[in-house]
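Entry 14. Ran structure prediction on the chain below.
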Amino acid sequence: MVLGNKVYVLHTTFSAETGKATGMSLVLFEDKDGDGKADGAPQPLIENLSNTKYIQERGTDHATNGIRMGIDGWIYISVGDFGFHNATDRSGKKLTMLGGGIVRVRPDGTEMEIFTHGTRNVYDVAIDPYMNVFTRENTNDGGGWNVRFSHHIQSGEYGYPVLFQNFTEEILPALVDVGGGSGTGALYLSEPNWPAQYTNVPMMADWGRSMLYIHRVTTDGPTFTQKEEEFMGIPQITDLDVDGSGRLYLSAWDGAGYSGSPNKGYVIRAVPKDWTYTAFPDVTKSTVEELAGLLKSPALWPAWLLRRSWLPGQINKRHPLRRWQ
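Output, structure tokens:
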């Protein structure tokens, strides 16, 4: 995840002596001089962010996966059902999660906390401009390997592994069970230069179905109803993201099977028909009037602007929006 001259990377760690996986870490690379190279070694923000035993036994497919920043300035981390033990953030705070869910942390690697719990194998989160969080992940609490599409509410319990089947009154239910599949990458697309029917929607990749789905969500009291729609067929799709100009990038593991291959897979770029490129503005050179105008944009540009107010050293923890009032 790129934020100005900073690049946040979530990756598996390995022992230099044995070559075996030791866990996962969230690290930060910085390029302050703008030469396109990181200024030294990566800075660890969270360490031990997965279960070493299970990573060594079967790889990272159910480990800790996607990272995405919300407009609230927190980094949201998708945790698979491997969970983790004694993950440690930059302040020394430790956290354990048995099973899967969503964890969040400040961009400076502090205040790590559990956001939701009880998902099986969530790979990524889609976050809309109003901080509604959506995921597409597995169920399997004794009832098959189905996929559920969920709306995440902070502190919510979603049932895996022990409540989903027999104690449904004690959990927040998914919006829908869509049957078999394997949810992977997720993105809330909000781009004014995309056709209206393809924007302001959660987009969800499904590796098992080789399909990118749109979930059309409609507000329903404190949550949503949804309608799943096939959008783009891509063999073994793994992830997706969009740049500041609205170009959509999608990665595929085409032909790599379950175990993967260094010689298979690709990234494609997609834009709507008759789409026109518009460069993302350089907000560091914008006037106050121009910045105010960008805040009115229907796209996620306001999110990019507001994110600047949560950079380390600029956080007003008691009144984080005060500088914008």
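DSSP finds three helices and 21 strands in the chain. Will compare against last week's run tomorrow.
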